[in-house]
Amino acid sequence: MNPLCGLYAITSAAVCVDGMRLLDSVEAAVLGGARLVQYRDKHSPPALMLRQARLLVGLCHRLGARLIVNDEPQLAAAAGADGVHLGGADAPVASARALLGPRAIIGASCGRSLDYARDAAAAGADYLAFGRFFASRTKPQAPQAAVEVLRDARVEFDRPLCAIGGITPANAAPLLAAGADLIAAVDGVFGAADVRAAAAAYAKLFD
């Protein structure tokens, strides 16, 4: 099963404040069909993040999914995670690769910039993430990307593309048609009353 194709579930701030809820929610997302999970926690102290990341690695591997850490290559390495996702202000892709090794999955946020995507691809990023495409509760101030950036990226790049930002099962079709391999969701999965059912609705898009 290709982990870089399908639903990419990214943990919300709300589920990260409660360790048991975090584990239960991630388990539900993976059982619903998430192939890739990103541990994104902007508020917990480092020691707690390490404990939770290690637990999530074990959970995801047991269920056949991969666990990516947001922003922090050192945390990914210490937790034994499958990789790291880097934003524009984070560590360079090349330094993350040097730390995590050739088998790690390294993703890069590209916003709506093909120039940034070119730099990330040249540095060895495994997937390129574009967005936000719709109104987003997680990053409401992020510049909006047009679907054309995905079409252009699909022509230019030979690696998986991720679409993010306010994407739901109801509005994802144009992004998939434009070449998205991964659909990332935060509140669309972890903000749902039934996380497993929400994940399954996204996963069905890839059947």
Q: Care to describe what's here?
A:
This protein is α/β, with parallel strands linked by helices. The chain has one domain (6-206): Alpha-Beta Barrel (TIM Barrel), CATH 3.20.20. The chain is 43% helix and 17% strand. The protein has ten helices and eight strands. It has helices spanning 13-16, 19-32, 46-63, 73-79, 93-100, 114-123, 147-156, 173-178, 187-190, 195-203, and strands at residues 6-10, 36-39, 66-70, 83-86, 105-111, 127-130, 161-163, 182-185. It has an eight-stranded parallel barrel with strand order 1-2-3-4-5-6-7-8, surrounded by seven helices. The radius of gyration is 15 Å and the shape is globular. The protein starts with 5 loop residues before the first strand and ends with a helix. The model has no long low-confidence stretch (mean pLDDT 95).
Walk me through the topology.
Layout: E1 6-10, H1 13-16, H2 19-32, E2 36-39, H3 46-63, E3 66-70, H4 73-79, E4 83-86, H5 93-100, E5 105-111, H6 114-123, E6 127-130, H7 147-156, E7 161-163, H8 173-178, E8 182-185, H9 187-190, H10 195-203
Parallel strand pairs: 1-2, 1-8, 2-3, 3-4, 4-5, 5-6, 6-7, 7-8
Helix pairs in contact: 2-3, 2-10, 3-4
